[in-house]
């Protein structure tokens, strides 16, 4: 495998992690959630707000870097940044923290995502209520007038095309929902901790936009998650064993298309995601391949999103994926255990940031569904507009 | 469409495309005259859809709106069962249409009533729905797609 000599492996580490409770109604502001998660991450690392000099946010967050720093009691920032779009952001947000630290602009960076995704601004509902749709170079004038108005409908079109091309069955697709639900049933912090699911339950769930059912969708969630990034040198003297950042990568694809989501239906192949390009950079920077990865947190806004990334990150070949799922290869003990906290579909939808936190837990050996001896932990942040990913390793 | 149908369409509450967006206005002015046109590069001949300021393939600035066929096949579809918008009662079917003879990615969206009986490869053709005029008097005409019952399907759409 080719390796990228310009990337500096293991120069930085995630030294602290923090989350709020995940709920349907937090009862507090998104700033309060962000501050709670960030404070927990600092406490976990054994650091104080005075140690923080950088903040990176998600481009869809409603909390500014200044508001987070102020709420946390950080006296002075030398760096702030943001990455996205949306769920493509979290690994790229960590990458931005690394860039800030390695260029000398900051030493200790809080990376966070906070949302009242259920009680506040909900992604699953169409925001379009005016009779005229489109404009501002969203290109939604080509989509909205036909009733293509939610991300679930978009991913349903992707899933239907994938089924047409590969013959994937509903029973095979269901495995993603079933396996991640089992992981949530082991995780007391997961929203679906006490809700078991059978294949019958899956098929009994409402079809929302064919071929995707309710349980193919992520959970709308109130909550926040944060991590603290610093140099590997500094991290080794802190409270927790560091999760070294072996590799980060970001990518679009050829002709990524304008707008936020629907315009990507004009790509030559709508089942090809930017994660396909992202993995080349990620693995070459890491000097590792998919066979070296022990556990993966795969961005799962919908089951189909996770399925396609399993192929893109090299865990199975297109056409074999249905059988791969049916054989239990994404379960504990399988070829690549995924979404061990329950992920977006059963833990909570913190827009990819809870995946970063769980990726660190696996390196520390503290997951509620721990992969024994996990040394290499992959986290992906996803498409459609762009992708990012990171690989964490034990020190 | 008949004058009566046009009048009725114009008073029906529905989402209408913004036809004056500078990048895509050319598409909707062609639709107002009953044509589908796609932005085309005069240097390399490729179609640029959705429209961008210059050719995304060769960076030429010489681009113009050129006619496209009014027939196509279903590339993907979804039956929407969960309502997310008051103006779109469920069920309805959204289709993504590959225009006949075009390069991959030159696609338009359609809406079929109910749970349409289609698969990838189902043949469809375009008509135009007159939605009246916007506040500034610009014609608002939406290309819409119907299942083509006269011609045979091309099959499953597998490639
Ligand atoms: Zn060109």
Please characterize this protein's 3D structure.
The complex is a heterodimer of chains A (395) and B (159). Chain A has 395 residues and is of the alpha/beta class. Helices cover 31% and strands 18% of the residues of chain A. Chain A has twelve helices and twelve strands. Chain A has a nine-stranded mixed β-sheet, with helices on both faces. In chain A, α1 crosses α2 (65-72) and α5 packs across α9 (303-312). The model of chain A has no long low-confidence stretch (mean pLDDT 96). With 159 residues, chain B is mainly beta. Helix content of chain B is 11%, strand content 36%. In chain B, the strands form two sheets. A five-stranded antiparallel β-sheet of chain B has the order 6-5-4-7-8, covered by helices on one side. In chain B, a hairpin with a 7-residue loop joins β5 and β6. The radius of gyration of chain B is 17 Å and the shape is globular. Residues 1-11 of chain B have low confidence and may be disordered. β5 (132-133) of chain A pairs parallel with β1 of chain B, so a sheet runs across the interface. The structure holds zinc ion. The site of zinc ion has 8 residues of chain B, from loops.
Characteristic terms for this protein:
heterodimer; A: 395 residues; alpha/beta; nine-stranded mixed beta sheet; two-stranded antiparallel ribbon; B: 159 residues; mainly beta; 2 helices; 8 strands; disordered N terminus
Name the pair of protein chains with the most residues at their interface, and give those residue counts: A-B, 50 and 48 residues
The main sheet of chain A orders its strands as: 3-2-4-8-1-9-12-11-10
Strand content of chain A: 15-25%
User: Can you tell me the overall shape of chain A?
Assistant: globular
Beta-strand percentage range of chain B: 35-45%
Q: Specify the number of helices of chain A.
A: 12
Based on DSSP secondary structure assignment, what is the total number of beta strands of chain A? 12
Radius of gyration of chain A: 20 Å
From the N-terminal CA to the C-terminal CA of chain B, the straight-line distance is: 36 Å
Largest sheet of chain A: 9 strands, mixed
User: Distance between termini of chain A?
Assistant: 23 Å
Q: Mean of the pLDDT scores of chain A?
A: 96
Number of strands of chain B: 8
Percentage of residues assigned to helices of chain B: 10-25%
The H-and-E topology of chain A, N to C, reads as EHEHEHEEHHHEEEHEHEHHHHEE
């Amino acid at each position: 495998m080719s390796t990228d000599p310009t990337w500096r492996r293991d120069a930085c580490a995630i030294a602290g992690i923090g989350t709020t409770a995940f709920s349907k109604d937090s009862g507090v502001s998104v700033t309060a959630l962000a501050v709670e998660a960030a404070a927990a991450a600092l406490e976990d690392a054994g650091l104080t707000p005075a140690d923080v000099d950088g903040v990176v946010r998600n481009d869809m967050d409603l909390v500014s870097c200044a508001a987070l720093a102020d709420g946390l009691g950080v006296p002075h920032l030398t760096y702030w940044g943001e990455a996205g779009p949306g769920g493509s952001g979290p690994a790229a947000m960590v990458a931005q923290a690394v860039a800030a630290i390695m260029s000398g602009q900051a030493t200790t960076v809080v990376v966070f995502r906070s949302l009242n995704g259920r009680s506040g601004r909900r992604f699953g509902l169409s925001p379009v209520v005016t009779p005229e749709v489109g404009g501002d170079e969203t290109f939604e004038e080509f989509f909205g007038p036909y009733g293509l108005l939610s991300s679930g409908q978009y991913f349903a079109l992707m899933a239907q095309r994938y089924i047409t091309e590969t013959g994937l069955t509903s029973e095979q697709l269901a495995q993603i929902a079933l396996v991640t639900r089992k992981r949530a049933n082991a995780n007391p912090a997961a929203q679906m901790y006490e809700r078991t699911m059978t294949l019958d339950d899956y098929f009994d769930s409402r079809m929302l936009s064919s071929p995707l059912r309710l349980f193919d969708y992520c959970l709308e969630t109130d909550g926040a998650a944060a991590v603290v990034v610093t140099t590997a040198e500094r991290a080794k003297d802190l409270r927790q064993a560091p999760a070294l950042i072996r590799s980060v990568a970001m990518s679009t694809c050829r002709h990524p298309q304008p707008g936020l989501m629907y315009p990507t239906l004009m790509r030559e192949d709508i089942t090809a995601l930017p994660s396909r390009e992202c993995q080349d950079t990620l693995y070459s920077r890491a000097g590792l391949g998919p066979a070296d990865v022990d556990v993966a947190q795969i961005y799962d806004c919908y089951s189909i999103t996770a399925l396609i990334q399993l192929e893109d990150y090299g865990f199975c070949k297109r056409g074999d994926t249905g059988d791969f799922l049916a054989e239990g290869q994404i379960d504990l003990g399988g070829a690549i255990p995924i979404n061990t906290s329950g992920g977006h579909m059963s833990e909570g939808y913190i827009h990819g940031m809870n995946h970063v936190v769980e990726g660190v837990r696996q390196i520390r050996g503290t997951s509620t569904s721990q992969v024994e001896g996990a040394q290499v932990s992959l986290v992906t942040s996803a498409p459609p507009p762009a992708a990012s990913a990171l690989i964490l390793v034990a020190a | 469409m008949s004058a009566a149908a046009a009048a009725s369409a114009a008073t029906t509450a529905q989402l209408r495309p913004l036809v004056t967006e500078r990048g895509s206005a050319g598409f909707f002015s062609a639709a107002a005259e009953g044509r589908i046109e796609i932005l085309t590069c005069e240097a390399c001949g490729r179609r640029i859809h959705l429209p961008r300021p210059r050719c995304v393939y060769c960076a030429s600035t010489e681009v113009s709106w050129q006619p496209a066929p009014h027939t196509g096949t279903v590339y993907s579809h979804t039956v929407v069962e969960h309502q997310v918008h008051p103006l779109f009662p469920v069920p309805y079917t959204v289709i993504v249409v590959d225009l006949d003879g075009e390069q991959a990615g030159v696609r338009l969206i359609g809406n079929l009533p109910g749970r349409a009986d289609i698969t990838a490869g189902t043949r469809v053709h375009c008509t135009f729905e007159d939605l009246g005029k916007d506040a500034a008097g610009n014609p608002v005409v939406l290309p819409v797609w119907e299942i083509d019952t006269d011609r045979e399907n091309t099959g499953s759409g597998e490639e």
